[in-house]
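Preliminary data (for renewal application), zinc ion complex.
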Amino acid sequence: MLIGPNGSGEFNQQSAIDNQQFTDQLIAAVLNSLTVDVEEWFHICGVPLLQSETWSRLPSRVEQTTRMLLDELDAAGITGTFFIVGWIAERYPKLVGLILAAGHDVGSHSFWHRRVYDLDRATFADDLRASVTALGAAGTPAITAFRAPEWSINHRSEWALEVLVQQGFTADASMAPLRIVGDVSYPRGPYVRSTPVGSIIEVPPLVADRFGHAMPMGWGWGLRMSPPAQVLKEIERANKIGRPAVLTIHPWELDPDPPRVPLPLGLRFAHYFRLDGFPGRLRTILRGASFGPLQAAASRAGSD
Ligand SMILES: [Zn+2]
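Predicted structure:
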């Protein structure tokens, strides 16, 4: 329950108005986060057809689709955080420059876009270092935020948080409070994770409860299938308790002519379900709430 600004539990018309104003001010004070995972349409983990040896032979769409997304965010007056795959930063440094020039923050989305829990500690450390090197060579300032491919930091790979701390990262956005890819027991708002070598702020994505289950509301099929009004209602619900909502978009979700490959059912759903009309729905969502970089949400850590 929200306590009104006058601290009174008595109900009268004036306190109802005060409470409403208090709630409105609280919602206005919370800046949500708009994040982008900059990857190719073929950066899908665990698909033999799409192993890294094939990447340079596949048609690239990332420059065109990221530019579309940059235009959308520019039109909406939003800056966010772009988690860029190192392999892309190395091949398309000018694209990294465009993202920076538009005022966005940049983080790492790994170098080879592999699930963290499939790697050992040394391999993850090397991959992370390679991504930071590639981003730095493309002109980024120090990289301090990370998002793992497919939310792959969970109970199988919590050691990765130590590696992130050791390499100077201060924020991670890889642990989803969902059963399928993470754990429903994870907090739904930004919080501090302690590791033996120091702490890091964990910034989870927006989930919502539907039919007794948590579902991805801020990204992927959940974001694409939900009417904008419903997404905005869930954002407001989070903001009312002082919690920022974190959305995640992929440039390939805006592709007007996306290449496709046969995928197992779960991945097909995650990648291809309800792409039709998504740019228009996204436009409505972006104009219906306030968004900023991940750092804005991270700064509210511990408010849970
Ligand atoms: Zn990814």
